[in-house]
Amino acid sequence: MSPQSADRVIIFDTTLRDGEQSPGASMNLEEKCRIAALLEQMGVDVIEAGFPIASRGDFEAVNQVAKQSGRAIIAGLARATKADIDRAAEALDPAPRKRIHTFISTSPLHMKFKLQMEPETVLQAVKDSVAYARSKVDDVEWSAEDGSRTEPDFLCRCVEAAIAAGATTINIPDTVGYAVPDEYAALIAMLIERVPNADKAVFSVHCHNDLGLAVANSLAAVNAGARQVECTVNGLGERAGNAAMEEIVMALRTRADRMPYDTGIDTTLITRASKLVSTITGFTVQPNKAIVGKNAFAHESGIHQDGMLKNAQTYEIMTPESVGLTKSTLVMGKHSGRAAFRDKVRELGYTLDDDKLNDAFKRFKDLADLKKEVFDEDVAALIDDEILRA
Length: 390
Ligand code: KIV
Ligand code: ZN
Prior knowledge:
Elements: E1 10-13, H1 29-42, E2 46-50, H2 56-68, E3 73-79, H3 82-92, E4 98-105, H4 108-115, H5 119-136, E5 140-145, H6 152-165, E6 169-174, H7 181-194, E7 202-207, H8 214-223, E8 228-231, H9 245-254, H10 270-281, E9 298-299, H11 302-310, E10 329-330, H12 338-347, H13 354-370, H14 376-389
Parallel strand pairs: 1-2, 1-8, 2-3, 3-4, 4-5, 5-6, 6-7, 7-8, 9-10
Helix pairs in contact: 1-2, 1-10, 2-3, 3-5, 5-6, 7-8, 11-12, 13-14
Bound molecules: 3-methyl-2-oxobutanoic acid and zinc ion.
């Protein structure tokens, strides 16, 4: 399937670039190469491996990832300057498939205070930087930094100029995580509708999670016509992070009825990728994190456990196997019911008659009041004791 087809969403992973911009999340060369290899194995379309001009380490990481790459497109970030673009092109040179990702701020706030440039000068920089990047590679992505807070007419002019200069992907970042889903979707739809030759480029979204809306904004934009989503494993990234790749991919897969778009990702590698990134960066994943949290497929309440034992679909909207786990867990705790306890006793290899099971269940409940989680060894010890009492 072509990455440009109407029902295909391109997954652009920026764990190694924007993810690494998370304070304290730096990774060494060998670690970046390991992550890139797994991303490629998962079927990620574009791997943004770093910002080559930022440091020698970043240059080497992009260069090394480019050397080891195969099917995936390797991207390197560059500001709108020749020096940045030259450095990105040099780092990417060994990649069979490469992309220069160049960006400049377009919002009034950023242009005035950060760049201290007039809008017309920014517009010229868009034209020059994209054309220069296109003289180096065929695949050029242009990003309007702070795009979601940019004045719409000016944004249309910048996007039109970038496409005319040869950009093949147009990315509209919600750099500060300020947008809300309907507004962001309307912005993407407006650009696709109004900009001349919009069909010559793939529209892309890049959402930050300052209001916890990065995934919702990205999905709303896909429904409005965006066909590339920029994201990171575990939602790693600046401040509150970026849109989480595992959430985007599993939402598209689980709710294909509302969002009929394929990502091409082997979802069974999601858990492995989450663990790898978390181990390397030292950023632990919160237990209740969607898809990859320790509790994402764990059930403690008696009512839920009973339902799960009858049919897993009662309380699970996707299977643990689909994200690379072997099975769901029924956590034995004070909310567990008799059905789950009976199941656990059986799983541990015991057969108890009804009276013994009732006695053991009462003692289990007393123990569960004292302990947060009752482990298999606790249940086994309790049953052994119950058998000895007879
Ligand atoms: O958040 C942002 O705007 C970015 C751009 C450089 C794409 O990371
Ligand atoms: Zn970003």
